[in-house]
Amino acid sequence: MGDANTMTGTWQIRPERPEDADAIEALDNDGFGPGRYAKSAYRLREGVKPEERLGFVAVEHGTALGSVRFWPIKVGGENALLLGPLAVRSDQRGRGIGIALMKHGIEQARATDYAAILLVGDQPYYSRAGFGRIAPGRVRFPGPVNAARILGLSLKPGALENLSGNIARARIDHPVCADGARLG
Fold it and tell me: What pLDDT, on the 0 to 100 scale, is given for residue 152?
């Protein structure tokens, strides 16, 4: 897995850095607002750090235009990734930034031991990066999720076809309260 940047038009994709934290938070706020914390996918992120090798930012002239992260999850007993959030600044949408970020992240994820990626999203958009709908009932999120929006992508041959069961956090990096604050 390389650290090489990817140039696309006048912007580039590079690995996420610690100093990107505020810009990524602003992108997530712009794209999803505070209501995102109530979603089932965010329950899987509480207390868990994203996969460090799989965080990417699209930048142009030093400004963050978009970001993507992948989170470790368990599906049944299998290790998988949860994609998201994938966020692009609202005034930059339509330039292909989101798709490019996602495809770059997927290619980097192929070099890991993870077998598949799951997400909750709109199939017409995510199918452009190879995601397809997972049959209702095969995987179960820890809270309410529209089954028609659960999508998956195999990183290893046949991996998605064998994935089933409850979805849970793969690990806990720090304990959290229900509101997301660190315990201590």
Answer: 97
Query: Per-residue pLDDT averaged across 74-78, rounded?
Result: 91
| DSSP-based three-state secondary structure for 181 | coil
81 forms beta bridges with 72, 117
**Degrees to nearest 5, angle at CA 35 with 167 and 109:** 40
pLDDT at 39: 62
Q: What are the structure tokens assigned to 79, written together?
A: 């290790």
Asked whether residue 30 carries a pLDDT value surpassing 80, the answer given is no
User: Strand (E) positions, the chain?
Assistant: 6-8, 11-15, 56-60, 63-75, 78-88, 116-120, 132-133, 139-140, 150-154, 165-169
DSSP reduced 3-state for 100: helix
